[in-house]
Amino acid sequence: MVILTSVMATGALTLTACGSRDDKGGNSDSGGGTTLTIGVDAPLSGENSTTGLGIQYGAQIAVDDANKNKLVPGVTFKLKAFDDKAQPATGQSNATAITGDKTAVGAVGPLNSGVAQSMQQVFASANMVEISPSNTNPALTQGKDWQTAKKRPYKTYFRTATTDELQGSFAADYAYNGLKKKKVFVVDDKQTYGAGLAKIFNEQFKKLGGTVVGTDHVNTGDKDFGSLVTKVKSSGADLLYYGGQYDESSLITKQLKDGGVKIPLFGGDGMFASTYIETAGAASEGDLATAVGVPADTLPAAKTFIETYKSKGYKGDYGAYGAYSYDATTAIIKAVKAAVDANDGKVPTDINALRSSVVDNVQKSDFEGISGKVSFDQYGDTTNKQLTVYQVTKGAWKAVKTGTAS
């Protein structure tokens, strides 16, 4: 998929009119105008690009709104987008590029939890805030021993998406008590997000009284799932749960149905994209996915956002994370405003001091976003714990249950 560049800043950012670069990296001029950059990192081409583009343009709309409404007087925000292609090494390189930009005050993204793992240390070393609208692996905020001893690894990392701990449990409860499924086959793509989500679903489904009749793993990029179909068919499963992205799951469900296995496939938010239905076609009918928050089109505050996204003709799918990207970007912008307000209405000339202040002020976030309440707990996790189960009905994702997982 071609990376769209029409709405994002490319190359080095120019100074505002009559501006001059001060020796500490900030952009300033005698009239008080300052240009500050917010980076956004996501897969903008290739696998996962449908949701990645939704993140990019959600952030773009937030930046445009802030500039139009002069949210921070005297400051113009620019978005600079980076394509990580869902690859951790590329994400790490992008993080280095973002933090190396002396006009940059924060970053939104990435999409994938595995990519986030490679980026966190880079942002922490630069004391720059990073807010993901979509990462869900609990270890990112609560440490590798999150199930027994939670400990926040990086004070610079936040997210507006709730965790797999809640998402996996919510899905298991709906599968067992909502769908009345008793025998599940669990598959994952071996990636940080997919394997973690599948593990939590597996554990919770068994706690509820269900039976996991089989487990298996696939590789990202696989196209032929014949052996998996055979295993699922012989297992007697009445549901297949998949931890991973839509690229593989859309092919799995198609090959399952073609192989005579007429059971639904249930996945996480990595599957919740229009591309899943477009690729799987009629085979996707009845399949399910959980996603963070409540449906964007039911939130009055998101109405203008959706209208803008559509009117601009932006590519990608805003439905999964667009609103969460908008709110993540807004949290950074509001934190900049708090830093400016605390400095007698002037942008701190020391970029490091500004970045540090932004981190502290993001932690104090407390506002109504277009996805709901935006605030963070002591780990950097969103306090908005709502989740929704969607089901493919007549060729479209339809919300079937919204609630809060415990």
Automatic annotation (TrEMBL):
UniProt keyword annotations, A-Z: Signal
Domain of life: Bacteria
Domain Leucine-binding protein: 35-395
Region (Disordered): 18-43
Family matches, as Gene3D superfamilies: 3.40.50.2300
InterPro entries associated with the record: Leu-bd, Peripla_BP_I
Family recorded in the similarity comment: Belongs to the leucine-binding protein family.
Protein's UniProt name: Branched chain amino acid ABC transporter substrate-binding protein
Native source organism of the sequence: Streptomyces griseorubiginosus
